Amino acid sequence: MSKLKEMNQQEFEALKKYVSSCSQSELTEIQNSMEEVSTGELVLNFSEKNSEKNSEIKSDPFEKCFSESRRRFLKWMGVSGLSGIIFILKPSTAQAFLGFMARMGIQKVSAATNYVDDVFSTYLYTGNGATQTITNGIDLAGKGGLVWIKDREQAQPHQLWDTQRGATKYLNTNNTGVSDTNNGGVTAFNSNGFSIGAAGVINSNLIKFASWTFRKTPKFFDIVTYTGDGSTVKTMSHNLGVPPGMIIIKRLDSTGAWGVWHNVFDNPGDDRTIWLNETKAANNNLATGFFRHTGQTALTNTFQVYMNGANTSYQSNAAGATYVAYLFAHDPSSNGIIQCGNYTGNGSTNGPEIAIGWEPQYVMIKASSGAASWTMFDNMRGIATGGNDYFLSANESTEESNNDYISLRPTGFQLTNAGAARV
Predict the structure, then answer these.
(1) Starting at the edge strand that comes first in sequence, how are the strands of the sheet with 353-355 ordered?
(2) Segment 325-368, tens digit of pLDDT
(3) For a Cys-Cys bond, which of 2, 120, 182, 400 suits 152, CB 3.0-4.6 Å?
(4) What is the mean pLDDT of each run of 10 residues along the chain (423 residues)?
(5) Contacts of 328 by beta carbon, 8 Å cutoff, 6+ apart
(6) Contact indicator for 347, 416 with CB cutoff of 8 Å
């Protein structure tokens, strides 16, 4: 008999490593086993029934379709004693696998196409109180990017480390502190992940941590560091190649709020900014002109900030001040992998369904019209349909909690909580 199994992230990473060692004929066998489903899922059908595609392996598919190395791999996956296996890959993983197979020569793809597993990772790990290397498949050494880490079990600050500022330099999203150094933090950006030291805030022994890695690449994510010049409008280049959907800016050399521009604010007369380290609603009374609002979504290669009032905690272009800007793309095209949008709640457990065309791996939500915390979800920590979802708050140091807030859908997600201010 065959075993039906939904592939998890660890198994997917193992599958990619295995596929990388396959011969061209073995890759063809894998291609023959692939079947896309209308829901966006991918079926890898290594079963006896599927062997009808190749008469040479029909009589004994498990022995002849699979090499010895492949049988060892399947045994590791818990398939020993079966005549085959049918893997189910959820939509986001399916897209990543199709892209991976394309790069192995199975089909032609555009060089400009991004695949999620190359540029984004949610990686969960347990601290060891010493040093360890996190292997998540993201090339930070060659391409650059951002690593965001949070202790899931203790009240510890969010830690952001990026390749522009360099290893050991961190920021905390839940406070206004300067860019500081921790030699026991992220110690290296590697070609397949990153290395960490013994700092308890990201590697306390036996404590569970979550990490999110964003790689710099067009149509997804970019990092820009700059020095303010005090001018009314400052224009800077970015490499997204598409309009930004969200921009987060933090002053580095002095304390300052985390200013956030979002494409929902890109309307005539809408000078609102929202703050990553605060719960308050989007407003324009603290820092009118922190960003150039109207027209930002038309800028595919640049973005603009304004010099604003005397409140130095809410400035983005003070003369001589240093800043970092994290730019997230908005790409609603058919092969896009990131979107930034908005919705209006209805106060029902059958809330709005947000359609983006695929099932997301990561969702961040902030109420713009009222005071509420930022809420971060991902499919590795768990987003349960009809159950509690694990979440963290970017503006809080509190440990992980859970509640029934959202459910994933094949083409997006749906709000499922009737009274929560945060969603």
Answers:
(1) 353-355, 412-415, 406-409
(2) 999 999 998 888 999 999 999 999 999 999 999 899 999 999 99
(3) 400
(4) 65 74 68 63 59 34 42 55 64 74 58 75 96 95 97 97 98 97 97 97 97 95 95 88 93 94 80 90 66 64 77 82 96 90 93 93 94 95 90 97 93 89 80
(5) 214, 220, 221, 244, 245, 246, 247, 248, 338, 340
(6) no
Model pTM? 0.75
Strand partners, 5: 87
Bridge partners of residue 225, in order along the sequence: 324
Burial of 195 from C-beta contacts in 10 A (0-12 / 13-18 / 19+): middle
- Given this model, what pLDDT does residue 211 score? 98
In terms of phi and psi (left: phi > 0; alpha: psi -120 to 50; beta: otherwise), the region of 229 is: alpha
Instruction: With H, G, I as helix, E, B as strand and everything else as coil, classify residue 359.
Output: coil
Phi, psi of 80 (to 5 degrees): -60, 140
Q: Which pLDDT score is estimated for 361?
A: 93
By CB neighbour count within 10 A (0-12 exposed, 13-18 middle, 19+ buried), where does 250 fall?
buried
Q: Which residue is listed with tokens 């407003």?
A: 283
Asked if 150 and 392 touch (Cβ cutoff 8 Å), the reply is yes
Rounded (to 5) percent helix, strand, coil in the chain: 20, 30, 50
What is the distance between the alpha carbons of residues 155 and 29, in angstroms, rounded to a whole number? 49
Contact 189, 348 (CB under 8 A): no
Q: Which residues share a beta bridge with 183?
A: none
